[in-house]
Amino acid sequence: MNSEWHKRHVLPKGAPLGQRIAWHREHQKRCACRPIPAQLQKEMAGSPNKKREPAIDEYLTTVIAEHRVLLQALRKTIHTVVPEVEECISYRLPAFRLQGRIIAGFSATSKGCSYYPFSGTTLKTLAEEIESYSHTKSALHFGPKERLPTTLVRKLLKARIAEGGRRSSTDSPGP
Asked: What is the domain partition of the chain in residue ranges?
């Protein structure tokens, strides 16, 4: 138990739902001495913002408008393809988690945008589909004017999910 964190972050009695959700999410990151109460998890499931991470919204405000539009479209596509995905920040990147495992992420760069499958094998698996894009072993680059097609995002996500629990030494988001 992180008693210092608890001393500095007291959840007020009778706090509104949004504040309780935010507190418990932060608690999971900083302490996690106990799970989120079942009743609150049910309430979170009914909350319209349950899957949105405020830090991603903050990140997008720092991105130039041209790239922001592309990343917002990608974010929406990911939620459409995998509705149960949850947003998070991983390796300082906006990311998407499914059943506790990061399956995708994105960032803006000086030249455009990047999609990260958080795996060293996903892009290899789809080598033919991504050959027209600039890429490294762990990042697919797109933009500044072109967005990733929904069909390609769907294939990327399905390939990453199909990898299941398998992890390789190359699993990382880095460029």
From this structure: 12-46, 54-162
Separation of alpha carbons 158 and 125, rounded Å = 11
The three-class DSSP label of residue 170 is coil
Contacts with 88 (C-beta within 8 Å, 6 or more apart), sequence order: 53, 95, 96, 97, 102
Selected from 3.40.720.10, 3.30.390.10, 3.90.950.10, 3.90.1150.200, the CATH number assigned to the domain covering 54-162 reads 3.90.1150.200
C-alpha–C-alpha distance, residues 96 and 88, integer Å:
6
Chain segment 15-58, per-residue pLDDT in tens: 777 778 778 877 877 776 877 787 777 666 554 445 677 888 88
Nearest to 160 by CA among 106, 97, 86: 97
pLDDT at 171 > cutoff 50: no
